[in-house]
UniProtKB/TrEMBL annotation:
Residue ranges annotated for the Tryptophan synthase beta chain-like PALP domain, each copy included: 14-301
Keyword Lyase: yes
Record GO biological process: D-serine biosynthetic process
Cofactor(s) of this protein: pyridoxal 5'-phosphate
Listed name of the protein: Serine dehydratase
Highest taxon, organism lineage: Bacteria
GO molecular function: ATP binding; L-serine ammonia-lyase activity; magnesium ion binding; pyridoxal phosphate binding; serine racemase activity; threonine racemase activity
Amino acid sequence: MDQKQLQECHERIKPFIHNTPVLTSRLIDQMVGASVFFKCENFQRMGAFKMRGAANAIMQLPKALQQKGVVTHSSGNFAQALSLAAQSLGVKAFIVMPKNAPQVKKNAVKGYGGIVIECESTLEAREKEAKKIEEEQGATFIHPSNDDAVILGQGTACMELLEKHSDLDYVFSPVGGGGLIAGTALAVHYFGNSCKVIGGEPLEADDAYRSLKSGVIETNITANTVADGLRTHLGDRNFPIIQRYVDHITRVTEDEIVTAMQILWERLKIVCEPSSAVAFAATLKEKELLEDKKIGIIISGGNVDVNRLPFSSLDS
């Protein structure tokens, strides 16, 4: 994937996405000891960066395949992203979701026009049901993070950040399935100026950290983290990009994630989800490295249950 493909991708999806704002806070700058610029994808359509990759993946399909629809398995942001992107483009979206997924998420997918197919809550059941829909409907399967078109789409968020602030020294991105950080790393490689990418990852789900150390894709036996969007694993399409272009990954504890999320809510006055706060938590942990530097942080999304905020327990 090259610079031209990234630029073409951005032009392609522009009518279907928001060019999200970049926010700053003098207090946070003082806290980090650096100039910090937050690319706020919590203001993206459907509330997360995944709208970018979903739109690009559908638009890259030939018209004949678009007419047969697309399918994915997800209970999170990509389920909503693919549904909304498909609706915007006049394409059917079949979304395989586990029966035990929160009803609010199922309702959100349906609200965006997605056709929800429920299955048992195992990866095997999800994949089996998605395969069945591929065969019966002729729908094209789109992976939430391990897909070239998705990776390119996710990279456009960092492209927009670099268009406004071309002199960043570091960009921090959360690491889950690897689509966002791989796209971010490509954008920094082609459009950054001696800029480095650092990943933020929960200590409780540190498969990407271990993968970079071992050179092979590692998995998590458990992923007991409040950052529910980061409980997924890397794929064979994004891992080589991460290996080549990501400087390193910083692991953060659950307390560090919750504290970072609370600071963002209080100081930036924005709704962001725990997964977004992981990148900022990593920034706080790397303060010595970042002194007097210019830092970009991707706030990946804002889809959070406001009745279950993790930092509310810290105040009691």
